[in-house]
């Protein structure tokens, strides 16, 4: 009776062991599956967070860029309003405190006429419309090195110890940037005794048989001078063939320096010379180098005078002075350039083309030209006298 019971105990132990093994395995497998699921869940959550972060970051950067552009435009607009308000105040002050009007031209019988006034000394002046430099002299004398004396009847009256007399054709303001910051006033002058040559060339361009132009012919000439291509061809021919002595008088309305003025001139010349391979020679390169060296100087205070003169042969002379009417003795010759191509390209920068240094100056010069061609050829110089 005792043996069977002893045998049953080992059997019971043996029979109980296999049943515990599957239970432990299932527990471990279940634990591993749970850990993997948790890990996968964590990765998905991290990916979602990273994606949300990138979206938010892109949105913030875009918003910042848009806000920056808006603030820049708004600031520029406010600055322009402030400058316009200041300019209006200055013009009002000039209108109230001085007899000089603000318009360079007036309309008489449907035609524009240059406004000519007299200062305290009786000299003729033309209003500019700007308070810093309220007027330009209608005529000025230039005594240039190597200046030739013309053989015309009025030459003796227009050339004396002070130099050759030049007559103002038109003027305007040079501005930069899209908000129109004013830099300098520029006036275009022609030697008074050479106006007849300019008259004859322009009149014959429209009507070879005429000595003066009627209103319809004047309008045709005005359209031709305002057209970019035709205007450039016209002025290029005048500068090459007419032999007129001309000058640009530049007077800054704010403090600047010679380097800034030089950079503007050089960019204008290079923009035009780059379109023509005939300028790619050593002579023109040397002329450009010499021209740049003229401006290795310091500051140019406002109201000072810079003169760019072109003689009958195209020689460029650069002078700097104190400004004003009696400035002849105070002018200093900065240098001369004999290559006429440089002065011609520099002149075209103000007179013709798709882009000019001052649209206001070009329009004003064209209106001044219209005053010349409506009179018989040869009578303008005598009338100025």
UniProtKB/TrEMBL annotation:
Region (Disordered): 1-38
Record field: compositional bias (Low complexity): 1-13
Gene3D superfamilies given in the database record: 3.50.70.10
GO terms of molecular function: intramolecular lyase activity
Keywords, ordered alphabetically: Isomerase, Membrane, Transmembrane, Transmembrane helix
Chalcone isomerase domain: residues covered: 165-366
Pfam families registered for this protein in UniProt: Chalcone_2 (PF16035)
Keyword set includes Transmembrane: yes
TM segment ranges: 59-77, 171-191
Top-rank taxon: Eukaryota
InterPro entries documented for this protein: Chalcone_isomerase (IPR016087), Chalcone_isomerase_3-sand (IPR016088), Chalcone_isomerase_sf (IPR036298)
Matches recorded under PANTHER family: FATTY-ACID-BINDING PROTEIN 2 (PTHR47284)
Protein name: Chalcone isomerase, subgroup
